[in-house]
Specification:
This protein has a domain of 105 residues: Oxidized Rhodanese, domain 1. A 5-stranded parallel β-sheet has the order 1-5-4-2-3. Helices cover 43% and strands 10% of the residues. By secondary structure, it is α/β, with parallel strands linked by helices.
Length: 163
């Protein structure tokens, strides 16, 4: 009798484990980002522009690819492609090349990409690494720059010192 109860309990446990393992399987990155969005904080373009206008201190990370960054970027942003965010955020050598200090866990970090999905995933990743004040720019650079989607976005020149 005890063996049957134990068998039933173990069977129920493994069935629950199997069912839970099958949840949260995504078809693509957009689905993953949509599901992840509820776990992160976002900032609007107006809020970002107000912070820029008020010269507030924050770190602005562009998580797009280098070619995208060269085409157009938000002035003052640092390029850190989505694929390396988790590896570079605490890397002394990376920040020395940017002439900046490693961000503290409580520093305000605002992340953006083209439309928001990569930013959502990068924001979640930094939150999971212990950063407590990370926000994604809602709509990405596409909402910040009205000319971005029309193909009229100006190519920015790269100044020295990572600018």
């Amino acid at each position: 009798m005890l063996k049957i109860k134990l068998y039933k309990c173990l069977s129920a446990f493994f069935l629950i484990l199997l069912i839970s393992a099958c949840s949260n399987i995504y078809e693509n990155g957009e689905e993953l980002a949509a599901d992840t969005k509820s776990y992160i904080e976002e900032i609007t373009v107006d809020e970002l522009n107000m912070k820029i206008e008020n010269q507030e201190e924050f770190l602005l990370l562009d998580v797009r690819q280098p070619a995208e960054y060269q085409k157009s970027n938000i002035p003052g942003s640092i390029l850190m492609p989505r694929g390396i965010v988790e590896f570079k955020i605490n890397d002394d050598a990376f920040w020395e090349e940017e002439f900046l200090y490693i961000p503290l866990k409580e520093d305000l970090i605002i992340i953006y990409c083209k439309k928001g999905d990569r930013g959502i995933l990068a924001t979640k990743a930094l939150t999971e690494l212990g950063f407590t004040n990370v926000k994604n720019l809602s709509g990405g650079i596409s909402s910040w720059d009205p000319d971005f989607n029309s193909g009229n976005a100006e190519v920015t020149e790269s100044g020295g010192c990572g600018g």
